[in-house]
Amino acid sequence: MPSVPACNVPPHMHCSLRYFFALLLALSPVLVTDSLLAQSEAVGDKVKRKQAEFDQQVRPFLTKYCFDCHSGDAIEGELQLDVLTDAANVATRQRKTWKKVHDQLFGHVMPPQDVDQPSKEERAAIVKWLSHAIDDYDCSGPTDPGYETIRRLTRYEYKNTIRDLLGVEAELADDFPMDDVGYGFDNIGDVLTLSPLLMEKYLTAAEQIAQQVIVTDPLDATVRNKLRAADMQGDGRPYDDGLRFLTTTGGFQGRIKVPAAGEYIVRTRAYADQAGDELAKMSVEIDGQSREFDVRADDENDPADHDFKAKFRAGEAPVRVAFLNDFYDPGNRDRKKRDRNLGVQFVEIIGPMGEDGLQYPEPHRRIFIVTPSKEISEEQAAREILQRLVSRAYRRPATEREVERLWNLVQIGTQRGGRFEHGVQLALTAVLASSQFLFKVEQDPSPDDKDGVHTLNEFELATRLSYFLWSSMPDDELFELAGRNELRANLEPQVRRMLADDKSVALVENFAVQWLQLRNLELMEPDRRLFREWNDGLRDDMLTETKLFLQAVVREDRSVLQLIDADFTFLNERLARHYGIDGVRGDEFQRIGIGPTARGGVLTMGSVLTVTSNPTRTSPVKRGKWVMENILGTPPPDPPADVPELEETSKVNPNLSIREQLAIHRENASCATCHQQMDALGLALENFDGVGGWRERDGRAEIDPAGELPGGATFSGPSELKKVLLSAQKQQF
After folding, report:
1. For the segment 429-449, what is each residue's pLDDT rounded down to a tens digit?
2. Comparing C-alpha atoms, which of 9, 2, 16, 140 is closest to residue 464?
3. Staple 634 to which of 84, 103, 185, 477, CB 3.0 to 4.6 Å?
4. For residue 60, what is the enclosing H or E element?
5. 3-class secondary structure, 561
6. What does the alpha-carbon distance between residue 610 and residue 710 come to, in Å, rounded to a whole number?
7. Is 552 helix (H, G, I), strand (E, B) or coil?
8. Alpha carbon of 212 to those of 162, 167, 690: distances in Å?
9. pLDDT for 202-254, tens place per residue?
């Protein structure tokens, strides 16, 4: 079980996203695992005092207000509290349970409204004790975060990793099966499966990517200067596709650029209409050097290349192509043999030949950091190539055994294809299909020791860091620091460097978009008869606004609280018109200052408001639930199975407003506890319609956005709701 570095939280923490992420990454081996459990606890007087407080304050409170439903055999919500007697476990192995108790008490969700309620002072005292106890970490020594489930790369991570490893876009990943989602995210190891279909897709992608990035024919890596026959001057008829067609003896000429002195391949692509007893003959002359060819190809859709080698000086060289043996027999019974003609598509020079003339694409050069030569054998070159490639692909130093096995594949591939590049291509295919590449693997030095705690090695820490901030593999700087065991000592500077990198857009594209549930925006289909302004362009604009805003908060080192309320956003003309904001022109997004308006922050953005609505109307319940889950971290429990949907309530009296329908819904005692907070939060956003436009009325009913949260905080609309979230609920957010 990996441990984490000690954490030192300054007394006056600057509440910015960059500091938050720096702290989060310092603790990442804890915070990204499934559990924050099993923290080591101080001993002695502190433990005794804590236990005494628990026995004298907490347990009597639970006995009076909670045990009726959460003790013995008939427990509700699968939560049994009477067995939790050890205060030392509040911040360790029982932390998740006590956090739930704290949140339910803090939000006035429990006890249910139809039973005896604690006084304001009683509730506040227990919430305060639990808050301190839950966060009472001992940061001075190693921590035990529990086991992290090994997981494969998501589709998004796979594409980014291929991009950063090889320098190509892995478009094939778009055809992979959709990643399984757990707890709202698609990178949860416990739910990410590996189906036979996905394994087939991985193998196919590995083969095709290896073929794409490695050039096996040197001719494909040489400079090609091409001259279309139709662009030359002389006999024959030119066509738009570049073809020049000669129906009688004659020729055409032009000039071609020679980039450097050396030996080149001269290639002419042509076909012929055959007639008579001999094949059509073509001569090609360039800079005084010529060759004569029999043109055997007789299909304009399948012409043939006619090559010869020649040496040229740098500069421009004259080119001439001629048809030498016209033949015409109009009386031949076979109509295809009556006329001999020549069609020429182009003349090109390929070179100069030799290593100095080769221009391999960048992905190929990334792999072939060395090539076999008189001084370097194929085995030496292969091992050097594989050592670097495998270390980067597996995100840790390659072992001798791994390199040896892949060297064997290089030999097999070389024998099959005839060139060294074919062998490396086969080895790369194996690397990309390996579990060490496809999965994030962390090695436990003592896997049989259930109580063993070890520190993540530097390469594992680099991998967690890069996949959190970039959704991709570590870069060279992280690898170098990890190799020198200096990453931990430079953790915060590296976090800041990585956040400033363009690849940190993954925090928005992958993390934030999932956190805000905005992937669902693509699936939303508001009723266009009711929301006439809705279209796919507006949908895209809404998502762009949110992404640009989130990027600005990160890049500009702004407070995380600005996610709730900010004085700026990003708009183009279409979205600004939808919001009722004047002065924005054009399709390009602009940074816009927001004055005294209800807009500002993610809660009031069209993207969030649309995904929390129904196709024909708003949904205060969905919006309130969204705020509870994504802003306050206190998701309500699932509704009882026997409770009717709100739509059924509306059928009783369709003239009732949403607020009145929800009031009827809350008359059910089993609904009232959760809906008291959920409905208030959602109704505060009712001035925004189902696609985020501002309104004062819902049909004939005037909108009343006022509300009160459990605990007494009141507000009269979205602006005041944000103030409450930034004050009374600030710490919870």
Report:
1. 999 999 999 999 988 888 787
2. 2
3. 103
4. helix 59-65
5. helix
6. 26
7. helix
8. 12, 11, 46
9. 999 999 999 999 988 877 767 788 999 999 999 999 999 999 999 999 999 99
Question: What H or E segment, with its residue span, contains residue 289?
Answer: strand 289-295
Total Cβ atoms within 10 A of residue 513: 19
Nearest to 690 by CA among 575, 573, 608: 608
CA 290/CA 268 separation, integer angstroms? 12
User: Quick one: tokens of 269?
Assistant: 């692509």
Q: What is the pLDDT of residue 41?
A: 42
Strand partners, 591: 570
Q: Which amino acid is at 394?
A: Y
Residue 268's DSSP bridge partners are 306, 347
As a whole number of angstroms, the distance between CA 205 and CA 209 comes to 6
Burial of 283 (0-12, 13-18, 19+ CB in 10 A): middle
State both tokens at 323. 């048809």
pLDDT for 24:
45
Residue 659 tokens read as 């607020």
Q: What are phi and psi of 300, to 5 degrees?
A: -60, -20
Q: What DSSP string runs through 461-491?
A: HHHHHHHHHTSS---HHHHHHHHTT-TGGGH
Instruction: Give the separation between CA 484 and CA 175, rounded to whole angstroms.
Output: 39
Nearest to 474 by CA among 455, 496, 498, 492: 498
pTM over 0.90: no
What does each C-alpha distance from 305 to 247, 285, 346, 622 come to in angstroms? 20, 15, 10, 66
Q: Which residues pair with 697 in a beta bridge?
A: 702
Whole-number Å distance between alpha carbons of 12 and 409? 57
